[in-house]
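Retro notes (design track)

What went well: tokenization of the new backbones is finally stable.
What didn't: we kept losing track of which sequence belonged to which structure.
Fix going forward: every design gets posted as structure first, then sequence, in one message. First example under the new rule, 90 residues:
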């Protein structure tokens, strides 16, 4: 799994105040930069893909653990409730 460093998911994962102490070893290997020149972007993403494929069992295990860790705090119900509360503040 590769996550764009510019995505909301990457922002959530990289912010300790949001991710509630999530182990960086679970997400850092999956985050790839995109704000570079095209050649540098390709190299960064190629390196991430190569790393993932070189030890696919560990990559899938890490992705599975990350998914399990995110299942509890990130639900549609919680997101909808938070959005509703934000609307009430307007």
């Amino acid at each position: 799994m590769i996550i764009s460093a510019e995505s909301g998911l990457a922002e959530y994962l990289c912010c300790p105040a949001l991710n509630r102490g999530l182990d960086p070893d679970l997400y850092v290997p999956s985050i790839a930069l995109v704000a570079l020149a095209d050649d540098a972007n390709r190299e960064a993403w190629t390196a991430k893909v190569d790393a993932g494929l070189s030890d696919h069992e560990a990559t899938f295990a890490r992705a599975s653990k990350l998914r399990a860790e995110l299942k509890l705090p990130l639900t549609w119900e919680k997101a909808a409730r938070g959005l509703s509360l934000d609307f009430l503040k307007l």
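Added context from the reviewer: The mean pLDDT is 89.
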